[in-house]
Please model this.
Amino acid sequence: MEVNVKRIDGNWDIGYSLDKHSINSEFIGYNEYDHPMFNTTRTEVGEALYQLKYKDDRSQASILGRQIVDSLGNHFHSISFILPMPASKQRSFQPVKEIAKQVATLMNIPYIDNVLVKTAYTAQVKNMPLKEDRIQALCSSFAVHDVLVENTYNVLIIDDLYDTGSSLEAATSMLRKYAKINKIFVATITRTNP
Model:
């Protein structure tokens, strides 16, 4: 799979994204429900993520997990455990969790999904114009659970899409308050900006 890795900056220690999500998106009209329709050309990684999330092609989780390890693994050699970004939408199959499990297995590192949990729905956040307001609202929707034994840990947060960085910055802010967390690394499958 061809990727265009880019460093992503935020309040975490190091972060990378595999590639842009799409190359081109052209408005083609409205459907019968008056929703806008687009003809979108995605990157290989963006298409794999789209197939996983919206076409239920679960085989893409292992492909994307492998791509994270192959393309980004050397940047994250001091990781203690893998943490999936808590989902913003509840569904029976959580793509980010499945990708994170694949990364953990391939790197032979524990997968822990109950350190940072989403406790509230935050639909209105996307409409907030200021990033600081979005981060504050998102922080209040997360809880950190003290499930780790005494030690300090370096965590790798896996997420599907990096857009403004608000969700990842809120997650990082919450994890920074947890004394058992040392360094925080971030890996995303795609990003919206070049």
